Amino acid sequence: MKLRIALILSILMLSIVTAYAQDATEEPAMDAGVLDPDACFRAAANSDGVVQLEAQEGPFTIGISNSFIGNAWRTQMIQMAQAFAQEPEIAEQIEELIVVSSGQDVEAQIAQMDIMIALEVDAIVLNAANPTGFDAVIRRAWEAGIPVIAFDNIVTAPEAILVNEDQIEFGRVMAEDLVARMGGAGNVVMVNGVPGTSVDSDRNAGAKAVFAEYPDITIIAELEGRWDSGTAQTVMADFLATQPEVNGVWLQGGGPGVIQAFLDADVPLVPMAGEAENGFRMAMAEYEDEGLVGISVGQTPGMVAASMQVALELLKGREMPRSIALPLPIATTETLEEGVNYFPDLPADFFTPIQIPGCGVNLTAEAILAVVVE
Predict the structure, then answer these.
(1) The model's pTM
(2) Buried-most residue among 169, 249, 256, 343 (CB within 10 A)?
(3) Where are the domains of the chain?
(4) Has residue 77 got a pLDDT over 90?
């Protein structure tokens, strides 16, 4: 399969060299590599219809339009897209994979999508800079016969096919666990994601709906962690320097950095609800006896691979729900298991949910980390 390293004007900043390894860190889950359409392409509760295209002959050209690549999740997402494209069953279906990133500039990302339309790609997989700015370009793609599959930060365009986890439920589940571990009372710090994205706003909405039910829970700060461990560590360290009383932390990402800020400030660890970074789960296991207990809910970077799978099946004529919901990968202090849902030998910022049973996503850590993103 030919891979194009795309550079489009000065807006595109991503160059990728791809390789992949043979050995696996962990044994793949049973049937994780087998596509089960009924399991993978499940309609979200708010799905408003189905989409079906006339079947086409492959192999296909798939474009991936990403916004920023400023944190470990986005980097791993690109790695997983490239690694997935190299899987034998997928490689024979993809003639060319075009991967570009634009940053948070909406106009730049629209421009990159227009170039993909001009290149006559067969489908575009989109992680958008914001939910509302892409209606016109997605309509242009649709009119050109190019389906757009939006994932992670989904969009409002009615022509787009949506692939995501339920982000409101994501925030709610985290908040419910945190409130229970705090005994329904105390001061909460929220470490949020990237402002303006649908993921950030939906997770916050889910969490705040829960916190509002408990009059003895007080949100004492909302910090902008941008789903990045270094940024989250900095903003949390600055906040802890003001010597507040913190009884719980609800954080969308950057868990290892938040925990390090507590350790550096010599502030007692508290219950936390966080993402699925390997370092966060390792710390939960290590510091359980020191007060760090909680829940880890994953937004898998493998969502990009599931979206590629949606694109391929659409192009082959399969009917799809317009909005597809993937399951939430969850681990708690009580269910952590070394080598199963956290990995002491892998980097702290590695996101642990790397396989999606039913969606044919059966990647190993070695295959993902072997992809170099520049």
Answers:
(1) 0.81
(2) 249
(3) 2-165+300-326+354-373, 167-297
(4) yes
